[in-house]
Design brief:
single chain; 285 residues; mainly alpha; 9 helices; 73% helix
Length: 285
């Protein structure tokens, strides 16, 4: 549940910050009359994300067991790729998110209403689709359709509240640090999703080694115990993984975590001025 809360919080906060910046910029530039297209784009993005999640859920229920396993494994690996790209992208762009969005909004204002709708839709829709896909894979991995959804909804609700506080100017955080540490946690969660996807593909007879167990600690950490359930809910922990699952888990987690936590490369430029601002949100009108 915590892993899904983290997904909902992080993805929702990205979307909330985007909406916050877009709306604040329109207000500051005396373009309040152009707010409606932005909200239209946001609404379309939310509706598309919900429809995508429903399609995954109801579409997969009509498949055979083997087809479900193949679909689940493939989409799990796809979601891991998307989340990995997302955390590295936000780590790189968190400091410049505001100026980048404002530049796109200036271009959209010059093109007209349709461009504003598309700008808002693209800015929010990516997070929505990623969230739907990742939450769906979490539901399949846990076999529980309630707690992952509750966790995601709580995370999204928290992100909306934080977005509103950002807009009102009552809350400021260091976005670079926030996305860095939540991103590290998501890399760990994604490693578990990857291992689950590998297991699905093994059950679907796409990958070999389903009966070749790396270890079995079910006696020490029973899957139905509270701590076994907690580990599975957060990290997709499995007490009896296959050898291939462990190998892929290590091959993903070790280099990705090392690259993500590595310090930024020093740039060959002059030292920054003392008055340089820190990477905090600044979006009240």
């Amino acid at each position: 549940m915590f892993g899904n809360y983290l997904i909902g919080l992080r993805e929702g906060l990205e979307a909330s910050l985007v909406v916050c910046i877009l709306i604040a910029y329109l207000v500051k530039t005396d373009n309040k009359s152009r707010l409606a297209p932005v909200w239209t784009g946001v609404a379309i993005a939310v509706a598309l994300s919900l429809a995508f999640g429903a399609l995954l859920q109801f579409g997969s229920s009509t498949l055979t067991f083997q087809a479900q396993e193949i679909l689940g494994g493939t989409l799990s690996i796809l979601s891991v790729g998307l989340v990995t790209w997302m955390v590295f992208w936000m780590r790189r762009t968190a400091r410049h998110l505001k100026s980048e969005l404002q530049g796109k909004l200036d271009a959209a204002l010059a093109l007209g209403t349709g461009a504003l709708v598309i700008t808002a839709f693209l800015a929010v829709g990516r997070e929505g689709l990623e969230t739907s896909l990742f939450i769906w894979t979490a539901v399949q991995a846990s076999g529980d359709g309630v707690r992952p959804l509750v966790g995601a909804l709580l995370g999204l609700t928290t992100s909306v509240v934080l977005g509103w506080l950002f807009y009102k100017g009552t809350l400021r955080i260091n976005l670079a640090k926030f996305f860095r540490w939540t991103g590290a946690m998501l890399v760990l969660v994604a490693a578990g999703v990857l291992a689950y996807g590998i297991h699905d593909l093994q059950e679907g007879d796409i990958l070999p080694g389903l009966r070749n167990r790396a270890f079995d600690i079910s006696g020490t950490i029973p899957p139905d115990s509270w701590y076994g359930t907690l580990l599975k809910g957060i990290f997709n922990f499995q007490p009896d993984p296959t050898v291939l699952q462990v190998i892929m888990w290590l091959l993903y987690l070790t280099p990705v975590m090392a690259l993500f936590l590595a310090p930024d490369r020093a740039r060959p430029t002059a030292p920054p001025l003392k008055s340089a601002s820190r990477p905090t949100t600044d979006c009240p009108p």
